[in-house]
Amino acid sequence: MLSQPAGAKSWTPAARFEALLAGAAMDEQERNAWCRAHGVYPQQLVEWRQSATEALGAEQTERSSPARAKADRRRIKELERDLRRKDKALAETAALLVLSKKLEAIFPRDEDE
User: Both 83 and 105 in a single domain?
Assistant: First the structure.
């Protein structure tokens, strides 16, 4: 199997989309020449097209939607609020434990009381 060219790893999703658009209007010889000029294998264009098609064909629940993003933000806010409340309760419990140990050190309990 041929190794990937060094520049293949730097293709952003937007650049891949532009490459797919450019390659779609070309015949096979022009596409091969374009691929050589840009350091991309023709097979990569096929893979990128398949990825884009699969992403567009994915169920709506799999894709991010504004309603889902809003629900996620609400859930994150709720979890952060709960975490702050539990942190405060833990800090208060730790302070009470330290104070009770200090009180015990100052006024030790006798077993005969």
Answer: yes
Sign of CA dihedral 54, 57, 61, 64: positive
Residue 74's domain comprises 64-113
Average pLDDT on 36-55 reads: 89
Q: What is the pLDDT of residue 107?
A: 92
Q: How far apart are CA 7 and CA 37, in angstroms?
A: 11
Rounded Cα distance, 83 and 67, in Å: 24
Residue 6 lies in a domain: no
Tell me: pLDDT of 2 over 60: no
100, 108 in Cβ contact below 8 A? no
- The sign of the dihedral angle between the CA atoms of 55, 61, 67, 69 is negative
At residue 90, does pLDDT exceed 90?
Answer: yes
Rounded Cα distance, 52 and 38, in Å: 20
Task: Specify the number of domains making up the chain.
Answer: 2
**Least confident window among 9-18, 19-28, 75-84:** 9-18
